[in-house]
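4.2 Preliminary Data

To establish feasibility before requesting continued support, the project team ran the inverse folding procedure on a target of 299 residues. The structure was first converted into the token representation described in Section 3, and no sequence information of any kind was made available to the design step. The complete token record follows.
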């Protein structure tokens, strides 16, 4: 088994206690299927090339420089050494600035997760911080320079160790007001709400990530295998669109509480037949007379 490579090494410091840690990527997309761009005629790989937008001439790497557009067609040029000098200095220390309740940070601020593993020389202090946060049910807010930027991390107990999630800056998180401004102001209650509760209760379970497969990756892998073996995959049937239905009826069907459509039609036809039979004059004339002679008019 290949030993994972640390993305960063430094210290965690809370109060006057400091101990060494290493940061490892907790989630990676490196195992996903990747494609190369080829020349259809030759089958050779195509390489990317930067060209001047006006002259069309290729621009070699050493001739490329960063630029910030201040207006249409005008740029401020930033030399590599100027950019490097603007990067905040790093003391390789994740300094804990506060402990907050685990539920206080909105998930929308979460960026990327990293495992924070202890160095052997600091395992006691590491366990102290981990167990202390578990008991207090809090997470730590810490800051340090990661990957050339000053980043905020939310550090939480995770199994036998700690996990640190980089947080998005406030200006990077979009307001939810725009997303939900068209939301109608409706109050759901009565049978609808009870049915929704019933469906939720019948669908309760536990999160198991192994149950959720990446169907795109599987489909592409199967396609590649089929092409290598010289066979074609069968065409998939077009999915059937769900029939339109009102919300209450859909809830009843989901809860298994609706009467089948066929039974409804049968019952409706039977009721209609009874109504027609009562209103039929011929059927009424065949009914036995209760008077035994001519009917006497009232009055």
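Position-by-position output of the design step:
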């Amino acid at each position: 088994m290949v030993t994972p490579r640390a993305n960063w090494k430094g210290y965690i410091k809370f109060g006057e206690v400091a101990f060494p840690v290493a940061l490892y990527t907790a989630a990676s997309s490196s195992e996903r299927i990747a494609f190369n761009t080829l020349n259809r005629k030759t089958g050779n790989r195509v390489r990317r090339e930067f060209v001047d937008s006006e002259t069309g001439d290729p621009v070699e790497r050493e001739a490329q420089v960063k630029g910030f557009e201040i207006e249409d067609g005008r740029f401020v040029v930033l030399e590599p050494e100027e950019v490097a000098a603007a990067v905040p200095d790093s003391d390789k220390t994740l300094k804990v600035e506060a402990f907050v309740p685990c539920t206080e940070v909105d998930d929308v601020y979460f960026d990327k997760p990293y495992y924070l593993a202890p160095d052997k020389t600091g395992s006691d202090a590491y366990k102290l911080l981990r167990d202390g946060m578990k008991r207090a049910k809090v997470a730590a807010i810490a800051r340090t320079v990661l990957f050339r930027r000053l980043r905020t991390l939310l550090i939480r107990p995770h199994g036998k160790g700690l996990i640190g999630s980089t947080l998005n800056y406030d200006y990077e998180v979009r307001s939810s007001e725009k997303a939900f401004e068209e939301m109608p102001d409706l109050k759901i209650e009565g049978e609808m709400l009870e049915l929704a509760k019933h469906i939720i209760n019948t669908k309760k379970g536990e999160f198991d990530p192994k149950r959720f497969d990446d169907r795109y990756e599987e489909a592409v892998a199967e396609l590649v295998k089929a092409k290598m073996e010289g066979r074609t995959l069968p065409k998939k049937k077009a999915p059937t669109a769900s029939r339109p239905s009102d919300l209450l009826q859909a809830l009843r069907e989901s809860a298994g509480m609706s009467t089948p459509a066929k039974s409804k039609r049968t019952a409706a036809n039977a009721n209609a037949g009874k109504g027609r039979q009562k209103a039929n004059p011929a059927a009424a004339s065949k009914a036995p007379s209760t008077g035994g002679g001519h009917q006497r008019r009232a009055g």
